[in-house]
Amino acid sequence: MKLNQKNRNRAYFRHHRKRAIQRKKRLSAHRGWVVKFEGVFSKGKIHCSCWMCSNKTKRLGYPKSELARIDNCQEQLQDYRF
Hints:
The chain is an all-alpha fold and 82 residues long. 55% of the residues lie in helices and 0% in strands.
């Protein structure tokens, strides 16, 4: 059992689920998306192609760690061919 565990009832979790759904509904309505059921917004993220929602990699490129990994893989491929 965790230390400092909070006792939270169903109402607490219901409230936050409803709050998240409302926020995502508002965003989807602003974008003009039509959703059959509201519950699809309860989990996960909603994405669009705007610069604020898109993946950082598209805008900023790969992080240094990824570039190093790619270089390492390319070197291994070159070593394998010879």
